[in-house]
């Protein structure tokens, strides 16, 4: 019987449809990541691996993977996996595109709205018993309607965010390496160079994958170019941002606020400098975290593994 190893505890009922066909084992903890030693040992025996973005699958890990045919990553991003090392060993890597697009776009917009309208700050204000009166500028924030949103990375999620922005009457700019004329026609979005997007957007939203080219693409120079009233939102990967430069841009008033779902080093601790600033909203990497979407993502990973181990092409190869 072929073996599947799952690097995090997932509900038994998701595994059940595959349990007669495969010997399935999983890491017993839901909230604690697998340690590298166990991963190395389990990968040595497995034919299929279901893994997460917290688990680095690199050259060293794969060196013991003598039977492994498929790695299914429970995310659309796959920067935790050394694709070259996998390819060298003919191991197929799959991800979960499309199924998380709308959910992640919802979260992106929730982060944009809560940063602009200071929702988290307002909640703390009420909780701390500070609400004693009404005053004209109490917790006054920034408008969203009719403002300009600049989306860096007009891919699947970028387009879904653009649709939401259109509903708010926003002007929509985008930047990619290549123009998307279909999206321009369908969504009324306008292509601009990166620098122009930074200079003219009220909201700058980062939705590019993490690659050597996008690493720290938002650094001191980028923040300096933004409007002082600009709000920066990152739902892509933390490594696309120089957090030190972001912190300084915020405290020096070069930009107004930011909303972050992802960080250079995750998880962040409660003394993280960005968390100390009122104008920053921090979330624990929950972009695709709706119950329905996470369930669909798990099912897609298991189907991809089943397809490959049955000699078929996977549904969503990287
Ligand atoms: P996608 O469809 O591949 O879109 C990525 C876009 O980025 C593409 O349009 C691509 O266009 C553009 N891009 C790539 N490299 C670029 C560069 N160097 N400069 C400018 N643009 C660049 O991916 P997606 O499904 O929308 O997901 C995007 C990312 O969001 C994922 O890779 C993942 O890291 C992140 N994500 C995070 C969460 C979360 O929980 N926070 C959830 C889902 C996804 P060109 O090729 O034309 O440049």
Secondary structure elements and pairings:
Layout: E1 3-6, H1 12-15, E2 23-26, H2 36-45, E3 48-51, H3 59-62, E4 70-73, H4 83-88, E5 92-94, H5 101-116, H6 119-127, E6 148-152, H7 156-167, E7 171-175, H8 181-187, E8 190-191, H9 194-200, E9 203-206, H10 220-225, E10 231-234, H11 243-251, E11 257-260, E12 280-282, H12 291-309
Parallel strand pairs: 1-2, 1-3, 3-4, 4-5, 6-7, 6-9, 7-8, 9-10, 10-11, 11-12
Helix pairs in contact: 5-7
NADP nicotinamide-adenine-dinucleotide phosphate is lined by residues 76-77, 97, 100, 104, 153-158, 175-178, 207-211, 213-214, 235-237, 261-262, 285, 287-288.
Report on the structure:
- InterPro entries: D-isomer_2-hydroxyacid_DH (IPR050223), D-isomer_2_OHA_DH_cat_dom (IPR006139), D-isomer_DH_CS1 (IPR029752), D-isomer_DH_NAD-bd (IPR006140), NAD(P)-bd_dom_sf (IPR036291).
- Pfam families: 2-Hacid_dh, 2-Hacid_dh_C.
- This is D-glycerate dehydrogenase.
- This protein is an alpha/beta fold.
- The chain folds into 2 domains: about 5-100 and about 290-310, Rossmann fold (3-Layer(aba) Sandwich), CATH 3.40.50.720; about 100-280, NAD(P)-binding Rossmann-like Domain (Rossmann fold, 3-Layer(aba) Sandwich).
- Helices cover about 35% and strands about 15% of the residues.
- It has helices spanning about 10-15, 35-45, 60, 85-90, 100-115, 120-125, 155-165, 180-185, 195-200, 220-225, 245-250, 290-310, and strands at about 5, 25, 50, 70-75, 90-95, 150, 170-175, 190, 205, 230-235, 255-260, 280.
- It has a 7-stranded parallel sheet with strand order 8-7-6-9-10-11-12, with helices on both faces.
- Helix 1 links the parallel strand 1 and strand 2.
- Helix 5 (about 100-115) packs across helix 7 (about 155-165).
- The longest helix has 19 residues, at about 290-310.
- It is globular, with a radius of gyration of 21 Å.
- The mean pLDDT is about 95.
């Amino acid at each position: 019987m072929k073996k599947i190893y799952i690097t995090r505890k997932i509900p038994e009922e998701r595994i059940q449809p595959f349990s007669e066909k495969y010997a399935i084992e999983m890491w017993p903890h839901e909230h604690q990541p697998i340690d590298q030693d166990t991963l190395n040992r389990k990968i040595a025996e497995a034919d299929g691996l279901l893994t997460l973005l917290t688990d680095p699958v690199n050259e060293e890990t794969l060196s013991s993977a003598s039977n492994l045919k498929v790695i299914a990553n429970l995310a659309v991003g796959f920067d935790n996996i050394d694709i070259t090392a996998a390819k060298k060993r003919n191991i197929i890597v799959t991800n979960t595109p499309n199924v998380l697009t709308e959910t992640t776009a919802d979260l992106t917009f929730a982060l944009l709205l809560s940063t602009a309208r200071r929702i988290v700050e307002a909640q703390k204000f009420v909780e701390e018993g500070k609400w004693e009166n009404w005053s004209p500028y109490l917790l006054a924030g920034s408008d969203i309607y009719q403002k300009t949103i600049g989306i860096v990375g007009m891919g699947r999620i970028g387009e879904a965010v653009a649709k939401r922005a259109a509903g708010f009457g926003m002007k929509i700019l985008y930047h990619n390496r290549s123009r998307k004329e279909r999206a321009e026609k369908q969504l009324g979005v306008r292509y601009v160079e990166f620098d122009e997007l930074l200079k003219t957007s009220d909201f700058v939203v980062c939705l590019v994958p993490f690659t050597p080219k996008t690493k720290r693409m938002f650094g001191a120079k980028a923040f300096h170019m933004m409007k002082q009233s600009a709000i920066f939102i990152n739902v892509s990967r933390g490594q696309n941002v120089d957090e030190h430069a972001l912190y300084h841009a915020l405290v020096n008033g070069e930009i107004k606020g930011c909303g972050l779902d992802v960080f250079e080093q995750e998880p962040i601790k409660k003394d993280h400098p960005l968390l100390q600033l009122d104008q920053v909203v921090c979330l624990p990497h929950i972009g695709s975290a709706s119950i329905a979407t996470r369930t669909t993502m798990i099912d897609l990973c298991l189907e991809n593994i089943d397809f490959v181990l049955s000699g078929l092409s996977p549904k969503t190869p990287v």
